[in-house]
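Justification of computing resources. Each target in the renewal requires a structure prediction run like the one illustrated here; the chain below, 88 residues long, is used simply to show the kind of job we budget for.
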Amino acid sequence: MWNFFTKFSFHLKLSGKSSPTVDACYKRSRPIVMTNIAMGVGMMPLALGWGADPSFRSPMAVAVIGGLITSTLLRKSWRFDRVRLELG
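Resulting C-alpha cells:
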C-alpha cells in the first residue's frame, strides 16, 4: 500500500501538483502535538507531587510525560524524513 502512495505522490510531483501525502502530514501534525501538550499539562500536577500519595504517582507521571515528548519527537522526525525522501 505504501508503494502505491509513493508512486502516486511521485506522479503528482512530476505533474506539478502538491502531494496528498505531504498535505496529510502537515494537517495531522497539529492535532497530534495539541493532544500531547494537553496530556503533558494534565500530568504536570502529578509529576510535581501535588495531590494524594505523590511518592507513588509522581514517577509514573514523569515517565508518561517523558514518553510523550520522546514519541512526539521521534514520530515527527520519522514523518518529515519520509516527506523529504518523497520530495527528493
